[in-house]
Write a structure and sequence with these properties.
The chain is of the alpha/beta class. It has 11 helices and 11 strands. It has helices at 8-30, 45-61, 76-88, 103-106, 109-114, 127-134, 143-154, 174-183, 198-202, 248-252, 266-285, and strands at 4-5, 35-41, 64-70, 94-97, 163-167, 187-191, 207-210, 228-231, 235-238, 241-243, 257-258. Strands 1-11-8-7-5-6 form a 6-stranded parallel sheet. Strands 3-2-4 form a 3-stranded parallel sheet, with helices on both faces. Helix 8 links the parallel strand 5 (163-167) and strand 6 (187-191). Helix 7 (143-154) crosses helix 11. The chain is globular, with a radius of gyration of 19 Å. Bound molecules: nicotinamide-adenine-dinucleotide. Residues 144, 167-170, 172-174, 191-193, 195, 198, 211-214, 232-235, 265-266, 269 line the site of nicotinamide-adenine-dinucleotide. Nicotinamide-adenine-dinucleotide is lined by residues 144, 167-170, 172-174, 191-193, 195, 198, 211-214, 232-235, 265-266, 269.
Length: 287
C-alpha cells in the first residue's frame, strides 16, 4: 500500500480543539454558552447513533446540547411549532433536524428545514445559506463537504489549480462540495447517475471525491496515479461491516492519499458541526 492514509481522527481533533478555544472565549469574554438543539423524530437506529455522537461532542467542548425527541407519529405542524419555539429561544444558537424524517412527513422535509432561522441553521441547508455559499459569501456551510475541504487544508494538500471531480450531486454533499472546491480555485467537474463514460472523467481528477452511496464502486482503474481520493460514502454491506464508495485496498495502491471508511471523513462531519455552532453564535451576537 503506497498512499498516505488520511485518518479523520487527527484532523477532527484539530478542528474540535480550535472550536473548544473559541467556545472558552465566547464564555469568558461575552458570557455566552453556545447551545445546540438536535431534533430527532422517530426511532431510526442510525439517526440515534449520529445524534448521540453529536451530543457527546457538545459535552466534550462545553456546548449546551439539547436533544428533542419527537414521536414517529409527529405531524408536520408539531415539528414546525417546535422549530418556532427553538428559533425564539435565546439560549439556543444552532438547530438541526436529523434526517431522514419518517415516511409520513418526509415529503415536507424542505418546508421543515426552511423553517429554521438561517442564523441558527448549523447544517447549512437553508436556501439563504445555500445562496451565500454559491455567491461566495459563505456563512453556515454543510458539515460533510466543509469537513473534507478543511481536512485537505490541514493535511497540506494543495487545491488551487487542481482538477477536481466529484461523483454525486446531492444537496448535502456533491453540490456544496462543488462550490467549496471552486472557491479554492480548483477546476471542478460534477458527475452523477446520468454521466457517460464516468471512468474517463474520474481518471482526469487530481482530487477525486466519491459521494454516491454505492459500495466500493470506484475501482483502481478509475483513479489517476497519484490522485487524492476522498471517500464520503458510508455503505453497510453486513451487520457489522461498513465500506465506502471506493474499493479501498486497490485504490490505495494507485492514489497518493486516501480516506478510509470507517475512520475517514465521517468523523469530520461532527467536528465541523461544532465549528458551525461557534460560527452561529458569532453571527447572532455580532462578533
Ligand atoms: P444521494 O443518494 O442523495 O446522492 C447520490 C448521488 O450519487 C446522486 O447525485 C447520484 O446521481 C450519484 N450516483 C449514484 N449512482 C451513480 C453512478 N452509478 N454513477 C455516477 N453517479 C451516481 O446521497 P448523499 O446524501 O449525497 O450521500 C452519498 C454517500 O455519502 C452515502 O453513502 C451517504 O451515506 C454518505 N454520506 C456520508 C456523510 C458523512 O458524514 N461522512 C454525510 C452525508 C452522506
Amino acid at each position: 500500500m503506497s498512499a498516505r492514509i488520511l485518518y479523520g481522527k487527527e484532523f477532527a481533533a484539530q478542528i474540535k480543539e480550535s472550536a473548544r478555544i473559541e467556545i472558552e472565549k465566547l464564555k469568558n469574554k461575552f458570557h455566552v454558552t453556545p447551545g445546540l438543539a438536535v431534533i430527532i423524530v422517530g426511532e431510526n437506529p442510525a439517526s440515534q447513533v449520529y445524534v448521540r455522537n453529536k451530543h457527546k461532542s457538545c459535552e466534550e467542548l462545553g456546548i449546551n446540547s439539547v436533544v428533542v425527541e419527537m414521536a414517529e407519529t409527529s405531524t408536520k405542524e408539531e415539528l414546525l411549532a417546535k422549530i418556532d419555539e427553538l428559533n425564539a429561544d435565546k439560549n439556543i444558537h444552532g438547530i438541526l433536524v436529523q434526517l431522514p424524517l419518517p415516511d409520513a412527513i418526509k415529503n415536507h422535509s424542505d418546508e421543515i428545514l426552511n423553517r429554521i432561522d438561517p442564523l441558527k441553521d448549523v447544517d447549512g441547508f437553508h436556501p439563504m445559506n445555500v445562496g451565500k455559499l454559491v455567491t461566495g459569501s459563505p456563512a453556515l456551510v454543510p458539515c460533510t463537504p466543509a469537513g473534507c475541504v478543511e481536512m485537505l487544508n490541514l493535511a497540506g494538500i494543495e487545491i488551487d489549480g487542481k482538477r477536481a471531480v466529484i461523483i454525486g450531486r446531492s444537496n448535502i454533499v456533491g453540490k456544496p462540495m462543488l462550490h467549496l472546491l471552486m472557491a479554492k480555485n480548483a477546476t471542478v467537474t460534477v458527475c452523477h447517475s446520468h454521466t457517460k463514460k464516468l471512468a474517463e472523467v474520474t481518471r482526469e481528477a487530481d482530487i477525486l471525491v466519491a459521494a454516491m452511496g454505492k459500495p466500493q464502486f470506484v475501482k483502481a482503474d478509475m483513479i489517476k496515479p497519484g490522485a487524492v481520493v476522498i471517500d464520503v460514502g458510508i455503505n453497510r454491506i453486513a451487520p457489522k461491516k461498513l465500506v465506502g464508495d471506493v474499493d479501498f485496498d486497490a485504490a490505495a495502491e494507485v492514489a497518493s492519499a486516501i480516506t478510509p471508511v470507517p475512520g475517514g471523513v465521517g468523523l469530520l462531519t461532527v467536528a465541523m458541526l461544532m465549528k458551525n455552532v461557534v460560527t452561529a453564535v458569532k453571527l447572532q451576537i455580532g462578533v
